[in-house]
Amino acid sequence: MQVEIYDTLSRQRKPLEPADNTVRIYHCGMTVQARPHVGHLRGYIVMDAFRRFLRFKGYDVTLVQNITDIDDKVIEKSRAEGIDWRMLAERNTKELLDVTSALNVEPPTVMPRATQHIEEIVDLVSRIVDRGHAYEVSGDVYFDVRSYPKYGKLSGKNIDDLMEGVRKDLADNKRDPLDFALWKAAKEGEPYWFSPWGKGRPGWHIECSAMSTLYLGSGFDIHAGGEDLVFPHHENEIAQYEAGTGKPFAKAWMHVEMLNLQGEKMSKSTGHVVTARDVLDLYDPNVLRLFTLRVHYRAQTEYTMEGIQEARSAWERIENFLEAARSALPDQSVASSYPEFEQALADDLNTPKALGLVFDLVREGNEALAAGNTGILTDVSARLNLALGILGFKPSDKRGSSEELDKVLAIVADFRAELRSAKAFDWADKLRENLQKSGLIIEDTKEGTRIRFK
Ligand SMILES: [Zn+2]
């Protein structure tokens, strides 16, 4: 089974062909001027599922996910909030780590920060200048776009078309409006590092060219990021690296489409966002993972209440089945393969199709439960456990897995049954209400009262 992904650069599907057993991936992480929103999480969840799948297929995966902890927006925002830019970056980075960890997104192999790699960045800028593809004007260094004829190859834009969209007045010191900054001279009161061009800081694009190749080498397998980064960020990353070194940059480009809010891209700068915390305060992290993976990563989608509620009911269907299956079949196993499911993911990470198979299993499993068919239930549960693991779901262990908790819930259930038999209905109802407020459900069945988590 050949794993294929759609490559933005060649505009076609490409088989994954790493030079050895390791797949090397660079994924543009967040600029930490603000708190992470659900739009950011889409990319993290998609890459997490992809990485788990590759590992399941026997590859080692080196995943580098950077943190942009210094740029114009970080400086502006820290001034607006009246705090040091380092504190702002640290606070938002910590929140990103907290929410991704809550979402069961595995930490990347390396999470480099721009400010930790100034030396490598300065070195790459120097090489670009030496090879005649960049120039310095009073402490700023610009990439000379017209010196690199392949500029536009990723986004499919050509230089003349781009010129039409550009303001003709040269606000900066650039020779050409299309040129972009590799290094910015520090203005009064701004953070700075020393460089051959004086005190300053890196431009945004250069850090990713420097850090990706530092950890992964040139010609690494996949460069990933949000669709909104194709131009100019990724276009510039390629130009800088290839012009500066003469070596190939990334073999394939994988872009995750936007998660919109009311038809518009979520944006930290306009405040048009739903923060990651807002969602995780209300919903099980598995619900957000399901909400994300139910749409193919190359399709735009909307964040809506209906969408997230649907994902919640869908996740409940899975958990209810798992709970029932666990009581019917305490010895659960994990299948070693599930070819149809693997084929779906090998096919440009078709997670909607893979999830369709998951729900087929839940349906078959429920039928097997009703019919008391242990053979089918065993097989279905094993495949379901495998599939959920590969997609990175983590069914809650608050059900069935904690014996102490089960004992306490049984005591509460018995107590409520006694209240009812003593005709103390007011007290029994009050107990039910309080349990419900804490997210517990009471079911009065023929076999007795059962209490479970919603
Ligand atoms: Zn980047």
Structure overview:
The structure is a single chain. With 454 residues, the protein is of the alpha/beta class. The chain has 3 domains: 4-114 and 121-129 and 203-265, Rossmann fold; 304-390, Anticodon-binding domain of a subclass of class I aminoacyl-tRNA synthetases (Four Helix Bundle (Hemerythrin (Met), subunit A)); 403-453, no CATH class. It is built from 15 helices and 15 strands. The protein has helices spanning 38-56, 72-81, 85-102, 118-130, 159-164, 204-216, 230-245, 276-282, 285-293, 305-328, 339-346, 351-371, 374-390, 403-421, 425-437, and strands spanning 4-7, 12-15, 22-27, 60-65, 134-137, 140-143, 180-185, 200-202, 220-226, 250-256, 259-261, 264-265, 301-302, 440-445, 448-453. Strands 4-3-9-10 form a 4-stranded parallel beta sheet, with helices on both faces. Strand 11 and strand 12 form a beta hairpin. Helix 2 packs across helix 3, helix 6 packs across helix 7 and helix 14 packs antiparallel against helix 15 (425-437). The longest helix is centred in the last third of the chain and has 24 residues, at 305-328. The radius of gyration is 26 Å and the shape is elongated. The relative contact order is 0.12. Bound molecules: zinc ion. Zinc ion (ZN) binds next to loops.
